[in-house]
Amino acid sequence: MRIPCPYCGERDAHEFAYLGDATLTRPDPAAAEAEQAFHDYVYLRDNPAGAHEEWWYHANGCRQWLRVARDTRTHAIAAATAARVSGEPA
Amino acid sequence: MRYSFLSLLANGLSGQSRWTPAWRDAAPKPAYDVIIVGGGGHGLATAYYLAKVHGIRNVAVLEKGVIGSGNAGRNTTIIRSNYLLPGNEPFYEWSMKLWEGLEQELNYNAMVSQRGILNLFHSDAQRDAYARRGNAMRLAGVDSALLDKARVKAMYPFLDFDNARFPIQGGLLQARAGTARHDAVVWGYARAADRLGVDIVQNCEVTGFLREGEAIVGVETTRGPVRAGKVAVAVAGSSSRVAGMAGLRLPIESHVLQAFVSEGLKPMVDGVITFGAGHFYISQSDKGGLVFGGDIDGYNSYAQRGNLPVIEDVCEGGMALMPRIGRLRLLRHWGGIMDMSMDGSPIIDRTPVPGLFLNAGWCYGGFKATPASGWCFAHLLAKGEPHETAGAFRLDRFRTGHLIDEKGVGAQPNLH
Known about the structure:
The complex is a heterodimer.
Chain A: E1 2-5, E2 9-12, E3 17-21, H1 34-43, E4 51-57, E5 65-71, E6 77-82
Chain B: H1 5-13, E1 31-37, H2 41-54, E2 59-62, E3 78-79, H3 89-100, H4 102-106, E4 117-121, H5 124-139, E5 145-148, H6 149-155, E6 170-174, E7 178-179, H7 182-195, E8 199-201, E9 206-212, E10 215-221, E11 226-233, H8 239-245, E12 252-264, E13 272-275, E14 280-284, E15 289-300, H9 308-321, E16 330-341, E17 347-350, E18 356-360, H10 370-383, H11 397-400
Parallel strand pairs in B: 1-2, 1-11, 2-8, 4-13, 11-18
Antiparallel strand pairs in B: 3-7, 4-6, 5-6, 9-10, 10-11, 12-15, 12-16, 13-14, 14-15, 17-18
C-alpha cells in the first residue's frame, strides 16, 4: 500500500502512522447532551466495508497529518489531502 | 456414527467407503427458537451448548459461505488463559477447562495439545509485569510459573539469549496452554450440534432483519426469510456490518491480522513461544510447519489480506528471537478480519434491540475463547442473564466506564 502524500509524493505505507476515522467531530462539551455525544465520539464507529475517510500521519516523512480516502475492501486509495487547509492558523 | 477404535477398524476393513457425512447440509425451515448468525467456531459452539446444556434444539446456524471459512480457519491455533484482569481471567480459564475435556465431550479429535506457552521477558520492568500477571493468574486458580534464564535455556537452548538489544532474562510459563487444530474444532462442534438436531445452513447470507415494531423476530437471507424467537449474532470481523442492518453502531473497528506458515521441518519448537520485545509468537504444527504471527496491520480493513511492512516486522521479530529460522522459506501467509474493540476485550451481551443478541469484539484472541464463548453465549440466550464468567463483557461498559483494558492503551483499537 502506497499513500500519495501531497508534500512528498507517493510513499510506502510503512512511513505513516494511522489514527482512524476522519469523519468524527469532537462534540461541544458545554452542550446539554455532551456525555452521550462524547461516548459516541470516543467509542462508536461506523466501521464501513468500502469507502473510508481516515487520518494518517507521515511520521517518517514530512510529519504532516493527511486525510486519506481509502476503500477498506481493496485498500485502494482514492485521494490524500492535507488535514490542515493551507492558510489555516496552526 | 460414533467415532471409536471399532468404527475406525470396521471402516478400514470395508475400504473407507462407508463413512457418512459428519453433519447434514440442512435447508432453512420457516422458523426456529434461536437463529445463530455465523457458522464459525463461536456460533457452532453456541448452538451445541444451547442444545446440550439448555435443551434448546430448535436452532439454526446460518453461515454465508461454508462453516469455518472465516477466522476459525485463519488463526494460529493457540489456546491459553494467561490474562491479568479479573474481568477476563475466569472466562479464559473456563475456556481452558472446556478445551481439556473437549474431545471426549464432542467425540471428535480436535488435536488439543497442552504443550505450554512461554512469554519471554527481556528487561527488569517486563519481568515485574509478568510476575504480576503470573500472580494474578494464580489468584484466579490458574497455573503459572516465572522461569529464570537458566530454566528457559534448558527448554529452548536455540533462542538468542545474548541478543545485544533484547537479551532474554526469563519467561512466564503456562504449562496447560497449547494448541488445537482449528478446523477440527469447527467440524467437531458442527457434528455434535447436528447430532442434537441443530440445523447448519451453509451458503445462506443474512441480508437484513425481520422486525415487528422495535423487536427483531427473524432474518432475511439469500435463501428466504427465517423467523426466530431470538437472533444471536456471532460474526466477528463483520459485526459492525451485521449490527448496522439493525441500526446499531458498535465500539468496534475491523482490522486485518496476518499469519504465516513456513515449509515443513522436523520437530524443533515443541511449545508456544512469544517474543517480549516485539510482537511475535510461534509454534510448530503437527505437519511440521512453523506457525507464526505478530501485530495487526493497524488500519481499518475488510480485505482479508495485509501489506508488506507487517510481514517484515514479524520476520524481524522472529530473527531476533531465533536466528536459526533465517534460512527457512515461507510456505504461505494470509489475513483475517478482526473485530478490534475499543478496550481490547470481547462483548457477549443482549443489545438495545429486543430479540437481538451480540457476540463480538474478540480482537485477535477469539480462537482460544471458542468453547467458553459458546458456553456463555448459550447461557445468555437460554437464561436471559450473563454467565458468571462473562459478566464483565457488557456492551454498555464503554458508557458506564467498566472497561477491560489489558494493555491500558485506551480507545485506540489498532494498539490493542
